[in-house]
Amino acid sequence: MNPSIIVVGGGAVGLSLAWELARRDCEVTLIDRGEVGSGTTWTAAGILPPANLEHATDPMDRLRGLSHQLYPKWSEQLLKETSIDIELRRCGGWYLAETAGERALMAGMIAYWNEMQIQCDAVPLPDVARREPSLANWTTQTPSAAAWWVPDEYQIRPPRLTQALHAACVSSGVTIRQGCEVVDVASNDVASHDVASNRGTAVVSLADRTTIKADHAILCSGVWTGGLADRLHLNQSLIPIRGQMLLLKTDRPVIESIVNVGNRYVIAREDGHTLVGSCEEESGFDLSTDETMLETLHQFAIATVPSLRTASRVSAWSGLRPMTFDGFPMIGPVPSQPGLWVASGHYRSGIHLAPATAVTLADAILGERPAIDISSFAVGKQQVFDTSL
């Protein structure tokens, strides 16, 4: 009998897992507290930095490299199955440095890219102005400026990604339950005595006092994962980090490639929308935006790409990124909790790492050898578990 699996969380990671498992003939139910794709994934910029699986040895580099390898195939398959273009584009990225600190940071990045055999070319400022005219003013106004070109950087449109994954899940037979709040997740071995064992070991309790049982349950609700089961103490290792985003609009795209300056960026869509981000703020679960920060982002965008001065401001929003203490996501089984799994803590890389997370965790759940070793992402390295409950 094909295994039954409950996926808790309908962002990029959860939807990718549900689709991958359904394609492997699993009986999948996906549960989301709101509408699928309406959380952190929707708020993301959709930047996929360069990666190279062939030369990767570090666990994160291998996970990133596998996803980078999978994305073109996934994009093609999603378009074929759903007719939705996720707008995966190999647009390349400019990496700019304005200060001595940023140049030092870039020196480290260049050494890393060289080691990974990822192409990175130092570009004289006059050539930058010629190749990306919108940056011409930046090249003359910043005396200590330096620029590098990285061709293997992609962009994707997160709302289209979740729309496509949602549609693919439905067409693959996934049962999707939206607006369902999960209040507890447990293994039958530690579930309360009044919950009768059905098929499998995972028991998901909902706010309406009903339960769903399956062979496995996967927790992939981003920053909300920690609150799904207090006994797992996952909230001790997942920290919400707020990022804010500004959306501008021009008649046509003002830049052809992604522009990165430190942890800030400008990314233009084909329809003339331009995203400007971002920041990293420890503000708990506060999803509000701050006008001072948004104005800082606006001024950064204008200083970098002056043609954005006349752009209309469409909207602004914030999202919460799930950060872990060691910077590694949690991908794998929950210790001493048969049938419970976690895929969370991807921080700023949830969209980029979603395909690799889905493929490797599906391998592990189904008893196959994962495409890459995920032992470094083991759940429990930082948590304190109470198995007596």
From TrEMBL:
Keywords in alphabetical order: Oxidoreductase
Cellular component GO terms, alphabetical:
cytoplasm
Give the EC number(s) under which this enzyme is classified. 1.4.99.5
What domain of life is recorded for the organism?
Bacteria
The record, for SUPFAM superfamilies, names:
FAD-linked reductases, C-terminal domain, FAD/NAD(P)-binding domain
GO molecular function annotation: glycine dehydrogenase (cyanide-forming) activity
Q: Which residues form the FAD dependent oxidoreductase domain?
A: 5-363
Give the matching PANTHER family: GLYCINE OXIDASE (PTHR13847:SF289), SARCOSINE DEHYDROGENASE-RELATED (PTHR13847)
Quote the protein name from its UniProt record. Answer: Hydrogen cyanide synthase subunit HcnC
User: What organism is this sequence from?
Assistant: Rubripirellula obstinata
